[in-house]
């Protein structure tokens, strides 16, 4: 019985995430912030805000080595992982 319920549960969770919607707003710094899948993915521009200590923070300017940061920030899984360019 459990073998039949688990795939059905996973499909139901996937459908709920797919139809959870998205939103775009203008931030105080003049950038845009777009949220997709109920906050599972958030993309922000001109977001030179500090990250929270509870996230796995990746600074892409150190990985790629570009000179001028764009201020873009991508947050995955409701803030668990943050990719930032500043």
Please characterize this protein's 3D structure.
The structure is a single chain. This protein is α+β, with helices and mostly antiparallel strands and 86 residues long. The protein has one domain (21-84). 26% of the residues lie in helices and 30% in strands. The protein is built from two helices and six strands. It has helices at residues 2-18, 60-64, and strands at residues 22-26, 32-36, 41-44, 56-59, 73-76, 81-84. The chain has a six-stranded mixed beta sheet. Strand 2 (32-36) and strand 3 (41-44) form a beta hairpin.
Features:
alpha+beta; six-stranded mixed beta sheet; 2 helices; 6 strands; 26% helix; elongated
Average pLDDT figure: 79
Bulk shape: elongated
Q: Detail the poorly predicted runs.
A: none
- What is the helix fraction of residues, given as a range? 25-40%
Radius of gyration: 16 Å
Strand order of the largest sheet: 1-2-3-5-6-4
Number of domains: 1
Distance between the termini: 50 Å
SSE class: alpha+beta
**N to C succession of SSEs:** HEEEEHEE
The oligomeric status of these chains comes to: single chain
- Number of extended strands: 6
How many separate helices? Answer: 2
Strand content: 25-35%
What characterizes the major β-sheet? 6 strands, mixed
Topology:
Blueprint: H1 2-18, E1 22-26, E2 32-36, E3 41-44, E4 56-59, H2 60-64, E5 73-76, E6 81-84
What is this structure, in a nutshell?
The chain has 86 residues and is an alpha+beta fold. The protein is built from two helices and six strands. The model has no long low-confidence stretch (mean pLDDT 79).
């Amino acid at each position: 019985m459990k073998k039949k319920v688990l795939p059905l549960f996973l499909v139901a969770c996937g459908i709920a995430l797919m139809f959870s919607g998205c939103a775009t707003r203008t931030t105080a710094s003049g950038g845009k912030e777009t949220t997709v899948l109920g906050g599972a993915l958030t993309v922000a521009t001109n977001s030179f805000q500090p990250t929270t200590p509870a996230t796995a923070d990746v600074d892409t300017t150190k990985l790629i080595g570009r000179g001028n940061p764009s201020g873009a920030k991508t947050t995955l899984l409701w803030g668990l992982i943050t990719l930032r360019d500043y």
